[in-house]
Hints:
Blueprint: E1 8-11, H1 26-37, E2 41-45, H2 54-60, E3 65-67, E4 72-75, E5 78-82, H3 87-99, E6 104-107, E7 112-114, H4 120-126, E8 136-137, E9 149-152, H5 160-165, E10 169-175, E11 178-183, H6 188-199, E12 206-210, H7 216-221, E13 224-227, H8 233-236, E14 241-242, H9 250-257
Parallel strand pairs: 1-2, 1-12, 2-3, 7-8, 12-13, 13-14
Antiparallel strand pairs: 3-4, 4-5, 6-7, 6-9, 9-11, 10-11
GO molecular function, one term: phosphatase activity
Pfam family, one: Hydrolase_3
Protein name: Phosphatase
Amino acid sequence: MKLSERSVIFFDIDGTLLTHEKELPTETKQAIFDLKKAGHEVAIATGRAPFMFEELRNELEIDTFVSYNGQYVVLNGEVVYANSLNLTSLEKLTETALQNDHPIVFMDHEDMKSNVPEHDYIHESMSTLKIDMFPTHDPHYYQERDLYQSLLFCPEGEEKQYEQVFKDFDFIRWHPVSVDILPQGGSKAKGIEKIVEKLGFSAEQQYAFGDGLNDIEMLSTVKNSVAMGNAADEVKSVSKYVTKPVQENGIVHGLEMVGLLQRS
């Protein structure tokens, strides 16, 4: 297959590859392998840390991914882009958050640590990810290391006070009591750009599937964008296509819709 006939397809994880119960549908798994068998490049684009989806990467045999919403990018097993948080600003934000009883979890490419021993908000939000690890306590984990994302735990709307002061960061809510802290201007779209530059695919050869608010820039940038049927209206509105919900074989339906797969 010539490069001009191949495509690169980026898949979000939660609500896209995985159902809301964090299960990978059998039909979705088969579709991924069918794409690869046909010569296409398959990649993941997620807000998760690399250590949060290693098992999924192994199951799908995928070694190209955009993680931390574009801040840590790997192509064929090698890091091609890393964009870390401003640690001076993060330290000041952490001090302010502590005064407000808003805990922080610091995250690098290998691990995550909380600045408080325990907190109900951390348990409530992290448990929804259904992963086999939980942040342990190390209030100094931000020192002398590159952090690509942190988590701020606060009720909806209370992140506004941080947005007004800490301009080095973008704040993206992913749970009713948790917000991603990202380097300002970072996104899945930026991470995808780094991979596409290396692979040499044209805009027409690029596809992306997603469902969350952190997918908006990706879906509005990638030419062949597909929103899951379970996505919010604002996500669907920026996408070229809308497929069925994840639990209704939305990935398979979407791939057929855009002509990447054909079921007999």
